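WARN retry 2 of 3 for item q-0093 after timeout on previous attempt; input resubmitted unchanged.
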Amino acid sequence: MGLKKIHHIKATEHLTISLVIAVIVYFLSAFLFDGLLSRLMLSWITFCAIQTAISWLVFAKSSATQTHQHASIEDGGRAITFLIVILATFAGMMAVFILLVKTDHGSKQWVEVLLGMLGMFLSWILVHTSYTSRYAHLYYGTKAGKLLKGLVFPGDEEPDFIDFAYHSFVIGMTFQVSDIDITSKRMRRLTLGHSLISFVFNTCIVALTISAVAGLFG
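OK item q-0093 returned
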């Protein structure tokens, strides 16, 4: 699939592709794992990896102009898809938690812990990747023929996807903005929600990591 075609994939199509492949992996994983949770985790990892890979393929190859074109496309399912991905990510984190604590500490299998840790890491990446697209979509949205923007980036160049990724992942790691100013109520609300989700998510990651280490060596 060429980059031009990827640029024109709608958010709902992107989601569907990831879901279909994840379901296929779930059924094929029956040959590798007996446990339901391990199979679900492998399919969740697949979903996260495909969602993230397609997004970052577009991010890495997009100029500011291409970012504008891609992010400003009126896709009615974009906001719904964003919410589905965020909710699904928290469901994935719950599955990670169950996988890591479902057995006695001394009997945990390395493969289960590795699946859980990988699922946790990819869930974190997916959340902030999804917010990257959301920030770009809101920034390059229009109202009465004018760009909505809402973020002020240093320098004179228009931002591309990597600039929005920088904003998103800084919030994801520090729960605050860096050198980018927020100038609209809509962006402030989105950033507030993102910061709160990041705080909860990172707290869960610390707790699950401690649980995993205790399970392996306890």
